[in-house]
From TrEMBL:
Coiled-coil features, chain-numbered ranges: none
Enzyme Commission number(s): 3.4.24.-
Domain annotation AAA+ ATPase: ranges: 205-344
Membrane topology: Multi-pass membrane protein
Name listed for the protein in its UniProt record: ATP-dependent zinc metalloprotease FtsH
Cofactor: Zn(2+)
Record localization: Membrane; Plastid, Chloroplast thylakoid membrane
Keyword terms, alphabetized: ATP-binding, Cell cycle, Cell division, Chloroplast, Hydrolase, Membrane, Metal-binding, Metalloprotease, Nucleotide-binding, Plastid, Protease, Signal, Thylakoid, Transmembrane, Transmembrane helix, Zinc
């Protein structure tokens, strides 16, 4: 059985403890004082002096270098019989010997007869020697494992995973939805395999490529594909592995990593989450030495210093490019910056095809429908979606994934786990009116997204939910669209007021009102969509420690602040009045929809619109 260093340590501790007590017991100084056990009684030193003065002491035997005395005394208190008594003598008693001689007491001293010197030498060497042997075995055992104490002197070495012809199991065919980024790296792989195509026209190999994008968009997956396609030595490391508590370790690991890479050039170095070591310099307080800055300085030097790194391509990934040091981003270090964004409809469809290869999906399920229902989903989100659907299918003992499981998986990912259904009560009816209010305003307002589903099934913290199908392009939003969203968010609260009265309004619209205020404020202060004018009045200020906005600083006068508050109020008030008008004009439709919702608990978007079209025209 192969023992770990922890098990070896646990085995060694009892041996060391037992050895210590054995040493204390066996190797203590041994004295030849068998007579010590003859005395059955003890006497104080003061009483002993009184016995001498009275002439009762007949003989004294000294032991332990004069620290112990066995006396023979006889007297009336002792039954006029000779008794042997033990007396502990003080360290300094010069008058004792004189007094004993003057009384004519028979005095005898017994020296220690033992091989103390030899045993002391053996005892002093045994325990330290045993300790050294145990520690030697411990370090030797741990040196054969990774991360043990035997590697304490190698903490400055790079922890990069080195692979030649890396077998990651991922190639470019497995990467979907990021065609532009994939084309960039296909070019680099070609450069590594056949550099003569490029050098013939004077082109040089890029030194670094930085992958930038939100989490889950496939940056690390793309790096694995590069490793699988390039057939060159591949080093992979995380930015956090350069950071240690020891001063200088990060810079040492950078030097060691590039030293190994130069020995195996041409090769690829992949640094994941480079923002852990590549943040902007000069953010320390008081000008103190920052270990992370020293690591970054070394990385800058290795990538493009006096020596250079010919034949080494550094690929890094981050989702926080805004906090990276500008010296790291310049050409010559990271020559290219590739954005890996959230996929569009075509990209989502390709990603679903990739992840559906090993899933048993019902042929009736259309992946294009799923792709259209999941705008804003990243590649990781889509992979998780199909996995959750597969788990639900297995729980229900089905053989294939159907659209029902996929719908449930989407709801679970976005809103949380499904809760217990509400019982029929006033609270359930109030929630039904609230959700129908959101849905009907969203349907009857021209620029609002379409209703996808209205449900009374609780999920997460929400007691009811109204789903809207988000627009494909969320990057550009018009003023009318923002106002439509404000009205849709106010629909639930307004419906509660009109149907149940102001005194029965609940706290259910708390989150809705936060969204309303936020959207109105952004219209005024960031997008210039108010009477104040086309001004951006609030900007995110950078924080040197977080690399992000810590809070908005006041960049305008108190007079402008008053105008901002008035404009926000006016926008919300206008949307509120329009929402009240829609709810009052469609009260009959709302009552009908509430009855259907309470009965069925869920109304799909198509059915919802069919019911409304029976009473009014949808814009």
């Amino acid at each position: 059985m192969k023992l770990s260093w922890k098990n070896l340590l646990l085995w060694s501790l009892p041996i060391l403890v037992v050895s210590f007590f054995v040493w204390q017991g066996l190797f203590a100084p041994v004295t030849n004082d068998n007579n010590n056990n003859v005395a059955s009684s003890r006497m104080t030193y003061g009483r002993f002096l009184e016995y001498i003065d009275m002439g009762w002491v007949k003989k004294v035997d000294l032991y332990d270098n004069g620290h112990t005395a066995i006396i023979e005394a006889v007297g009336p208190e002792l039954g006029n019989r000779i008794q042997k008594i033990r007396v502990e003598l003080p360290i300094t008693a010069p008058e004792l010997i004189t007094k004993l001689k003057s009384q004519g007491v028979d005095l005898d001293a017994h020296p220690i007869k033992s091989n103390t010197a030899v045993w002391n030498l053996i005892g002093n060497l045994f325990f330290p020697l045993l300790l050294i042997i145990s520690l030697t075995l411990l370090f030797r055992r741990s040196s054969n494992t990774t991360g043990g104490p035997g590697q304490a002197m190698s903490f400055g070495k790079s922890k990069a995973l080195f692979q030649v012809e890396a077998k990651t199991g991922v190639i470019f065919d497995d990467v979907a939805g990021i065609d532009e980024a994939k084309e960039e790296f296909e070019e680099i792989v070609t450069f590594l395999k056949k550099p003569e195509y490029f050098t013939a026209v004077g082109a040089r190999i890029p030194k670094g490529v930085l992958l930038i994008g939100p989490p889950g968009t496939g940056k690390t997956l793309l790096a694995k594909a590069i490793a699988g396609e390039a057939n060159v030595p591949f080093f992979s490391i995380s930015g956090s592995e350069f950071v240690e508590m020891f001063v200088g370790v990060g810079a040492s690991r950078v030097r060691d990593l590039f030293k190994k890479a130069k020995e195996n050039a041409p090769c690829i170095i992949f640094i994941d989450e480079i923002d852990a070591v590549g943040r902007q310099r000069g953010t320390g307080i008081g000008g103190g030495n920052d270990e992370r800055e020293q690591t970054l300085n070394q990385l800058l030097t290795e990538m493009d210093g006096f020596e250079g790194n010919t034949g080494i391509i550094v690929i890094a990934a981050t989702n926080r490019a805004d906090i990276l040091d500008s010296a790291l981003l310049r050409p010559g270090r990271f020559d290219r910056q590739v954005n890996v964004d959230i996929p569009d409809f075509k990209g989502r469809l390709e990603i679903l095809h990739v992840h559906a290869r090993n899933k048993k999906i019902d042929p009736k399920v259309s992946l294009s429908i799923i792709a259209r229902r999941t705008p804003g989903f990243s590649g990781a989100d889509l992979a998780n979606l199909l996995n959750e659907a597969a788990i639900l299918t297995a729980k229900q003992r089905k053989n294939k994934i159907t659209l029902q499981e996929i719908d449930q998986a989407i709801d679970r990912i976005i809103a949380g786990m499904e809760g217990t259904a509400l019982i029929d009560s006033k609270s359930k009816r109030l929630i039904a009116y609230h959700e129908i209010g959101h849905a009907i305003v969203g349907t009857l307002v021209k620029d609002h997204e379409h209703v996808q589903k209205v449900t009374l099934i609780p999920r997460g913290q929400a007691r009811g939910l109204t789903w809207f199908t988000p627009a494909e392009d969320q990057s550009l939003i018009s003023r009318s669209q923002i106002k439509a969203r404000i009205m849709g968010a106010l629909g639930g609260r307004v419906t509660e007021e009109i149907v149940f009265g102001e005194s029965e309004v609940t706290t259910g619209a708390g989150n809705d009102l936060q969204q309303v205020t936020s959207m109105a404020r952004q219209m005024v202060t960031r997008f210039g969509m108010s009477n104040i004018g086309p001004l951006s009045l609030e900007n995110e200020s950078s924080n040197p420690f977080l690399g992000r906005g810590m809070g908005n600083t006041s960049e305008y006068s108190d007079e402008i602040a008053i105008k901002i508050d008035k404009q926000i109020h006016d926008i919300v008030e206008e949307c509120y009045k329009n929402t009240v008008k829609i709810i009052k004009n469609n009260r009959v439709i709302i009552d009908k929809l509430v009855d259907v919702l309470i009965e069925k608990e869920t109304i799909e978007g198509e059915e919802f619109r069919r019911i409304i079209e029976q009473y009014t025209k949808i814009p």
